[in-house]
Amino acid sequence: MFQNTWTPYLKKEFREPYFEKLSEFLRSEYANKTVFPRREDVFNAFQFPDMPDIKVVILGQDPYFKEGQACGWSFAVRPGVEIPPSLRNIYQEIHDDLGLPVPSTGYLLPWARQGVMMLNTVLTVEKDKPMSHRGKGWETFTDRVIMKLNELDQPVVFLLWGRPAREKKKYLTNPAHLVLEAAHPSPLSAYNGFFGCRHFSKANAFLSQAGVTPVDWRI
Length: 219
Fold this sequence. Notes:
This protein is α/β, with parallel strands linked by helices.
């Protein structure tokens, strides 16, 4: 496990009864099925960015369910992996919103290093079975993570994409933060409110007004 501000919090959650039950489920799943992302990548969203550096939280649903895609940061893929449709739609919205060129890679670590936390409501998935790990305990974990993030003193923009993400809004009560909601960028729903949401320019305007360096959304 990496060491940063998240580490004591994560270790505390790992000892909770709900997480011990989730861990038992995951041990069986990883032993008997193909599960994404790799075990060592499940908590990458907590490695970069560290808690004090967070400016934006992008909250999605669950990891990519096809071979070689999920890498622990929501919507990102590793270098050399074909850009998935949801990320292509995110890039299209950034282009339409900010006029930036559409990237040729899906590796979003430059965002993470600027303070963009890319998290899903469920952190694992069985191969070819989207939302297959829903209701196993991850939602309790990410509820608590969102509540922890809500306590942060620094202004944070929360981008809630899709119904599971939008259900977390009830935990975001701190007036220091900005909460923006939209449909999930999946091709199945992007035209129902993701395209045209202008979340990227709105996030940067909020950060600038708060005296925080905005995010350079180029990849």
